[in-house]
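User: Structure with BV8, tokens only please.
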Amino acid sequence: MHQDFLPPGIVILTGAGISKESGIDTFRDKDGLWTRVDLEEVATIEAWHRDKKKVLDFYNHTRRGLRAAHIVPNAAHLALARLERDYEGEVVVVTQNIDPLHEQAGSRTVLHMHGRDGEVRCMGCGHVFASEADLSPQSKCPNCQAVGELRPNIVWFGEMPQHMDEIYAAIDRCVDLVQIGTSGEVYPAAGFVLQARRRARAHTVELNLEPTGNQPLFHEHIYGPATQTVPAYVERVLAGRWKS
Ligand code: BV8
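Assistant:
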């Protein structure tokens, strides 16, 4: 079908809230991860240079926790995979999450802008590879043999998020930007709604448990648990009633 006649594209930005009902903690809710751990100690490039063992042990523990629990995609992840499958226009999922639940639900166009759990990156040669092994300051890069240069392929504060060119291009051509389960406090992700409005004149929708700080920037607001609101939103889009 020629590009000009395809229905318009939708960019979906997800955050930790979409995985909450799958059993993964969020960051800034009252019981969130950053309420228990000082992010400055474990989620910045400075922390890694200051105390590699502390940072690597934190992510070793995080990864083991994700593996131990029986964590599976929930109805919200599955609804987004259905949208990509059944909607004739482009659907791009941009996620701030490091978990694989979008892919496990069947989504195929997923951009992990803050990196991915279960991937390791070498700060010496840039090699990125899948690994379930614990990392330590003694770990050796399988590509360049450097010791002590391996870290999780996760974007820390102060580091450039990944896939930004693709993300900005998708936003510039979308007509809907849908933000699901994110507090909208971390940039540049929190700025996508303004880019979508200014650059693409897109219709913007916030799906969350409750209003977020950048709630006024959205044209439309749908509040409730993602496992209820996302399937209903997808049903509405696929029924052709995608604009309110
Ligand atoms: C960068 C990895 C630039 C670790 C994370 C202005 C412009 C640019 C940068 C900045 C700026 N101002 C400040 C900055 C710096 C900084 C920043 O934004 N700081 C904040 C705190 C002010 N940004 C950065 O450092 C970023 N880098 O901009 O680089 C640059 C440019 C050029 C060259 C070099 C650099 C990097 C940011 C990435 C940091 N890494 N994580 C890890 O994951 O272990 S961020 C962290 O927050 C997580 O990744 C998470 O994804 C992200 C966002 O959090 P949320 O997903 O929104 O989760 P949260 O708990 O906050 O909210 C959950 C929401 O879900 C809530 O609203 C809740 O109501 C809702 N919810 C809960 N349950 C449900 C639900 N909704 C529906 N249903 C439910 N059931």
